[in-house]
Amino acid sequence: MNAKRIVLLLVAIALLSILLFTRLASNALMLLMDRTNFIPAQASILTLSPYVISEGSGAYWLYAEDRNNYYHFTYEPGREYLVMSKNQSCPSFKKDDFRTWCQAKVQSIR
After folding, report:
1. Spatial separation of the C-alpha atoms in residues 45 and 65, rounded to whole Å
2. Residue ranges per domain, the chain?
3. What digits encode the pLDDT tens for the residues 11-47?
4. Predicted model pTM
5. Could you give the CA distance from residue 94 to residue 32 in angstroms, rounded to a whole number?
6. DSSP string of 38-100?
């Protein structure tokens, strides 16, 4: 095998690994399917993992998480989402009920 083929093979393996072992493909598809969707500023398209999706006509996330935070999409202009660090210890915490979150910060998309 010549050097060019080896480099192309390594690049192909790297790209395939990114697609298979990150959330890139599913998050990109989510963003393309519904313009309401967004990736919070604190998160990455590679790591954001939605775990509650709207059951209505849109396919936007209601709750998501990454390595460091939990996120809740609120729909409210100027305060579109809440973010809470996973380091917080909240009594009776449920990751799919923002009312049980403590010290969640209000964030705006803009």
Report:
1. 11
2. 25-107
3. 888 888 776 777 777 788 887 877 778 899 999 988 8
4. 0.78
5. 29
6. ---TTS-TTT-EEEEE--SSS--EEEEE-SSEEEEEEEETTEEEEEEETT---TT--TT-GGG
